[in-house]
Design a protein that fits this description.
Blueprint: H1 6-18, E1 26-33, E2 36-43, E3 50-56, H2 58-77, H3 88-93, E4 107-115, E5 118-125, E6 131-137
Antiparallel strand pairs: 1-2, 2-3, 4-5, 5-6
C-alpha cells in the first residue's frame, strides 16, 4: 500500500465528490489541523457538517474517506440514495426546523402536550402536507432570576 499524503487525500476527495458522491446529498472534505486531519461530510443544504474523524493520521483519514464512499455506494446500489424521509439524526441536526420529507422550513407547529419529562408537538408541512410529532425531552432547568423593581 502506498503512503498516504495530503496531496493524494485531496485528489481522492475531489475524485469522489465529482464522481460517485455527486448525486448524493453530501460531499466529503478533510482539513489538516495541528494534531492531524479532520474528516467530515459536508451537506449540500444548510445542514451542519457531520464530523467523521478528528486528529487522525493521513492513513486513518484516507480510510475514513473510503468508508464514507463505500457507505454511499451501498445506499445507491440499494436504491435508497434519495430516501423518502430524512434520518432521525439529520432531523435532530436540523433542529426540527425542516420538514422531514421535503426539507422546507414552511412548517406550522401545532398543539403541545407534556407527559413526564417529554413534550410532543404536532407539526404540519405547508408544502407537502406531511404531519408529524416533534418530541422534546427534559434534560436540565434554569432558575429564573428575580429582578427587583
Amino acid at each position: 500500500m502506498a503512503k498516504v499524503t495530503e496531496k493524494s487525500l485531496k485528489a481522492r476527495c475531489t475524485e469522489l465528490n465529482m464522481g460517485p458522491l455527486r448525486g448524493t446529498t453530501f460531499g466529503i472534505n478533510f482539513e489538516r489541523t495541528g494534531n492531524g486531519y479532520t474528516v467530515e461530510l459536508k451537506y449540500r443544504d444548510a445542514t451542519p457538517p457531520k464530523i467523521l474523524a478528528v486528529d487522525v493520521t493521513a492513513a486513518e483519514a484516507a480510510a475514513t474517506v473510503e468508508g464514507a464512499a463505500a457507505g454511499a455506494a451501498a445506499v445507491q446500489v440499494a436504491g435508497l440514495d434519495k430516501p423518502e424521509f430524512v434520518t432521525r439524526d439529520t432531523f435532530i441536526r436540523q433542529a426540527g426546523e425542516r420538514c422531514p420529507k421535503c426539507a422546507t422550513k414552511d412548517i406550522s407547529p401545532g398543539h403541545l402536550s407534556a407527559l413526564k419529562g417529554t413534550m410532543t408537538q404536532q407539526c404540519l408541512c405547508q408544502r407537502c402536507g406531511l404531519s408529524w410529532n416533534s418530541i422534546y425531552r427534559l434534560d436540565d432547568y434554569e432558575a429564573a432570576v428575580a429582578v427587583e423593581v
